[in-house]
Design goal:
Order of helices and strands: EHEHEEEHHHEHEHEH
Shape: globular
Helix content: 25-40%
Distance between the termini: 35 Å
Number of strands: 8
Strand content: 5-15%
Radius of gyration: 17 Å
Low-confidence stretches: 1-13
Mean pLDDT: 93
Strand order of the largest sheet: 3-2-1-4-5-6-7-8
Number of helices: 8
């Protein structure tokens, strides 16, 4: 795999507008989305659980603004929540109160009960999808995306539309307008998207499913979503 590909040209959304984007969580996915979205010319604020002073290097590298989690969504048209699932209940109350009207909230999260998160009864016993559980804590609809994407691919694997090597990512959600915003943004990052249905359908892209971690185009992603089993794999049960 090639190393850092440069992305010299700044572009904006299909409508030509720069968006205000808040990223909550500066791990591998959050950090690399910060890198790519700032390179595309968007106005990015990034927060983590430890405070903005720990994000100085990322801010200096990208031009993003390091903020406290409470401030990340203020005025944002898109908010990315990319924290460990077990940390979702600890996010500040009213996190999205100051966001722009119609904000699209992207949930990149995954439930890893044995490896990280411990057992979450609502997921295991009530059969809630991971994103529905997150949505209830946030008090706002979410769009599930990037949860099965390798963080490095966000930097390295974006391709122009029509490129035979362009990968497709599944996107699930209930709010069609927000889903369209997210799909357009993912397109701008250099990936096709496949509508994976509602948040109640988003089990089809959870860990252990055929599409999780799949590096493939649109048809293969559609096929993998169709082949998913609702039975949670043993490795991903608490």
């Amino acid at each position: 795999m090639s190393g850092h590909r440069t992305h010299a040209h700044a572009s904006t959304t299909p409508e030509g507008r720069v968006m205000k984007i808040g990223i909550i969580g500066a791990g591998n996915i959050g950090g690399n989305l910060t890198r790519r979205l700032t390179a595309l010319g968007h106005d990015v604020s990034v927060a983590n659980s430890r405070g903005p002073e720990t994000l100085g290097d990322l801010a200096a590298e990208t031009g993003a603004t390091a903020v406290r989690a409470e401030e990340a969504a203020v005025g944002a048209q898109v908010v990315v929540v990319t924290v460990p699932l077990k940390a979702v209940p600890d996010l500040p109350a009213g996190l999205l109160d100051g966001a722009a009207e119609g904000v699209a909230v992207i949930d990149t999260g995954n439930y890893y009960p044995q490896q990280r998160d411990g057992r979450i009864a609502a997921v295991e016993d009530e059969g809630l999808t991971e994103s529905r559980w997150t949505e209830r804590h946030l008090g706002h609809p979410v769009i599930k995306a990037f949860n099965g994407t390798y963080a490095q691919d966000i930097l390295d694997r974006g391709r122009p539309a029509g490129d035979p090597e362009r990968m497709a990512l599944p996107v699930a959600g209930d709010d069609e307008a927000a889903k369209r915003t997210v799909r357009d943004l993912i397109g701008e990052l250099g990936f096709d998207t496949v509508d994976a249905g509602s948040i109640d359908d988003s089990w089809r892209q959870q860990p252990g499913t055929p599409v999780y971690g799949l590096r493939a185009g649109t048809e293969a992603v559609r096929k993998a979503l169709a082949e998913a089993s609702p039975e949670r794999p043993a490795d991903f049960r608490g």
